[in-house]
Specification:
single chain, mainly alpha, 16 helices, globular
Length: about 325
């Protein structure tokens, strides 16, 4: 014991780790694994965000910065035609896009997860089938669905006409009444596998004793789901809600492929992502960099703020379950 106490610090570490192994400080191990990811995150996320914030406060002539503009770029977006109209219209469409997608994909995803959890027949195949669409780029998905829904040669209208439903054979993406709902349906179809997987994992983590106790107490299947299963799915619902919100308010590829850069027809599918594209590359003129950067900053502040509030809300709900 006396000899052990007299050992120096390096020798004590060597004794703990083994005589043949070299002691590596914990911070070095963390640095090796974290620094590459931190570097990539800084280059591709942090730097563009900081650059957009910087660019939004300057006046531009093409790609030349000519002077400090303060909040002029923000005032232009909110007060100059046509941006002041297009911004609020795009925001409203984004809100509808998110609400519709959230309602459909979450409800259907939870239903599929419950069915697969309860019956389980062909579970692996069905999970793979439902999750495959969201592995495909939204631009590709949008282009394929625009072909399927084409009123001239698309198979959707051809099938409706073949079964005698000629009145249902509509120009789905050419009518202002149906364009946005169809885009919402396609988006929900693509991403329904994401909540299904999360809900399946959450259902598997609920102890069976909870459901058995509910049955012993005389609860019906609906009461057991409402009082036991649904509250315990709060963490998964929170993750699905926040990530769906972030993804839908950053939507671009799917809607661009199905409706073009103007959100056709007549701007009925216009969203913030399309507006940013037009301001930056089509309509922005010599002030394109400043105004598009201002729009990017507004989008980031709104999405980040709402996401933080929603995350805080769901965490409070989770703590009540403990």
């Amino acid at each position: 014991m006396v000899q052990a106490r007299e050992l120096s610090a390096p020798r004590r570490r060597a004794a703990r780790t083994g005589a043949g192994r070299r002691y590596v400080p914990r911070w070095r191990v963390l640095a090796v694994f974290l620094l590459p990811a931190l570097l990539l995150y800084s280059v591709f996320i942090v730097y563009p965000l900081v650059s957009a914030l910087d660019y939004s406060f300057f006046e531009w002539r093409g790609i030349r910065q000519v002077g400090f503009a303060g909040f002029d770029n923000y005032r232009d977006l909110l007060g100059i035609y046509p941006y002041n109209q297009q911004l609020w219209r795009a925001f409203a469409h984004n809100a509808l896009f998110f609400a519709g997608t959230m309602l459909i994909q979450t409800t259907v995803g939870l239903l599929f997860a419950l069915l697969l959890f309860r019956y389980g027949r062909g579970k692996r195949f069905l999970q793979s089938a439902f999750t495959t669409p969201y592995l495909v780029d939204p631009l590709v998905v949008g282009y394929l669905w625009s072909l399927l829904l084409n009123p001239t040669f698309g198979p959707v209208n051809a099938l409706l006409e073949a079964v005698g439903l000629d009145s249902w054979a509509l120009p789905w993406l050419g009518d202002t009444r149906t364009a946005l709902p169809i885009v919402v349906l396609v988006n929900a179809w693509q991403w329904v596998g994401f909540p299904m997987l999360l809900f399946s994992a959450a259902l598997a983590g609920i102890p069976a004793e909870y459901h058995e106790a509910a049955r012993v107490d005389g609860a019906s299947a609906w009461q057991a789901f409402r009082r036991v299963t649904l509250p315990l799915l709060t963490p998964a619902i929170g993750v699905v809600s926040v990530l769906t919100f972030i993804g839908n308010f950053n939507a671009f590829g799917l809607i661009y492929a199905m409706s073009g850069s103007t959100g056709s027809p007549a701007g009925s599918t216009d969203v913030l992502g399309l507006l940013f594209y037009r301001v930056a590359f089509v309509e922005g003129g010599v002030e394109a960099i400043g105004r598009s950067s201002a729009l990017a900053v507004l989008m980031f502040v709104f999405i980040f703020g709402v996401s933080m509030v929603a995350t805080s809300y769901f965490r409070r709900r989770e703590r009540k379950l403990v």
